[in-house]
From TrEMBL:
Listed GO biological process terms: regulation of DNA-templated transcription
Gene3D superfamilies: NIF3 (NGG1p interacting factor 3)-like (3.40.1390.30)
Natural source organism: Cyprinodon variegatus (Sheepshead minnow)
Chain ranges passing through the membrane: none
Keyword set, alphabetical order: Acetylation, Cytoplasm, Metal-binding, Nucleus, Phosphoprotein
Protein purpose: May function as a transcriptional corepressor through its interaction with COPS2, negatively regulating the expression of genes involved in neuronal differentiation.
GO cellular-component term (any): nucleus
UniProt protein name: NIF3-like protein 1
Length: 414
């Protein structure tokens, strides 16, 4: 009977989640488990299942047309691209939060928040601006009108418009800006140039010896107090009749008090070793991409493909030493924006990025690598249309997602 109920529970949960996904309601997140790459339904208890199933279906028409609160939209954005993927130096997330709460009915996507984009957002009565580049990056000591970025922040607050920036979290995510950029050349075996690392609750491993089970229990009790007992993980094995080997993992905050505790005990202090644990890699996530093309192309064809992909009439090209327009491109490395630091040292037939300095281009060319430059934001902006569709299907119909028409790269060929 229990097995049968579990099957029914799972089926009803799945039907409920599918029903809600049709309505594009964000309220389904209460019954789903999210990960960087997928969202899967979780079985509910018997009472939870029938309650959830009947109440959600009964109110689905309301959720299909109701706007969302700002925090609900932020939860959806986090599911699509966790902010933890951003580089440590970056300034991502909610940058401007109005003092008065208002429902989110119109969201504007832009690559850069400029005066022209802000005026457009005000005209459309936008409630939230998602600016790929953070308009506020460096610490601010005052808000004055003479600084154009501070002026934009003031206008956003006065208009009650929230501002959110994802920046390098979009670059790093699987299926993000860099995957979109490298896709312009066609299919291939794609790998990450600078691997993203996952978060780890435990950063250090402490190994030591004790003489008896009684001493082990006493030491562990003291260690549990160092981190409230929540962050301690331990294992032990008897080496011989006179000693027990103990291994514990702890967080950064618990490291110092844990070591101090062990130093107060004679046997552990004499045998103590400390190991720093590496963060686990996140396959498919990180900065930059390298593609081994399934179908190699010439440099000339690569240029035409990228023009079409980026929607540009002109690109800048530097041919690698000994290369011509008819030279074959079997491998291409890309990094959206200013990619020299990520591309440096990478062996590839072609680099594609937004901008590189004069000497960085010379270095690549001398090594036989051709370089395509599109100007900074032109290597990023096209992804906004892709993200617009991903976001729209996860929001109620009452929330409109639009692309800025005023957003453009400041440089143009004349």
């Amino acid at each position: 009977m229990l097995t049968g109920w579990r099957n029914i529970s799972w089926t009803l949960s799945l039907l409920a989640s599918r029903r809600l996904s049709i309505c594009k309601s964000s309220t389904f997140s209460t019954a789903l488990i999210s990960s960087p790459s997928s969202i899967v339904p979780r079985p509910l208890s018997p009472t939870q299942t029938f309650s959830f199933f009947t109440s959600r279906l009964a109110s689905s028409s309301t959720h299909c047309s109701a706007p969302l609160e700002l925090q609900e939209v932020l939860q959806v954005l986090e599911q699509l691209a966790p902010l933890s993927l951003a580089e440590s130096w970056d300034n991502v997330g909610l940058l401007v939060e109005p003092s008065k709460s208002r429902q989110i009915k119109t969201i504007m996507l832009t690559n850069d928040l400029t005066d022209a984009v802000m005026e457009e957002a005000e005209t459309l009565s936008c409630d939230l601006i998602i600016s790929y580049h953070p308009p506020l990056f460096r610490p601010i000591k005052r808000l004055v009108q003479k600084d154009w970025k501070q002026r934009l922040a003031i206008r956003a607050v006065e208009a009650g418009i929230a501002v959110f920036s994802p920046h390098t979290s979009w670059d790093s995510m699987k299926g993000g800006v860099n995957d979109w950029l490298v896709g312009g050349l066609g299919s291939g075996q794609v790998s990450v140039l600078s691997q993203a690392l996952g978060s780890a609750s435990h950063s250090h491993k402490l190994e030591f010896m004790v003489r008896s089970s009684e001493e082990l229990n006493a030491v562990l009790e003291e260690l549990k107090a160092c981190d409230g007992g929540a962050g301690l993980q331990s294992s032990s094995s008897r080496q011989d009749s006179s000693s027990i080997h103990v291994s514990i993992t702890c967080s950064d905050s618990a490291l110092t008090p844990s070591v101090q505790t062990l130093l107060r005990h004679n046997t552990p202090s004499q045998s103590l070793s400390i190991l720093k644990l590496e963060k686990p890699p996140l396959p498919g996530y990180g900065q930059g991409r390298l593609s081994v093309l399934d179908h190699p192309v010439t440099v000339s064809t690569a240029v035409q493909k990228m023009k079409s992909h980026l929607g540009l009439v002109n690109l800048r090209l530097a041919l690698g030493a000994g290369r011509t327009l008819e030279s074959s491109v079997c491998t291409a490395a890309v990094c959206a924006g200013s990619g020299a630091s990520v591309l440096s040292g990478v062996k590839a037939d072609l680099f594609i990025t937004g901008e590189m300095s004069h000497h960085e281009v010379l270095d690549a060319v001398a090594k036989g690598t051709s370089v395509i430059l599109s100007d900074h934001s032109n290597s990023e902006r096209g992804f906004l249309a892709v993200f617009k569709e991903r976001l729209a299907v996860r929001l109620p119909d009452a929330v409109k997602v639009v692309l800025s028409k005023a957003d453009r790269d400041p440089l143009e060929v004349v």
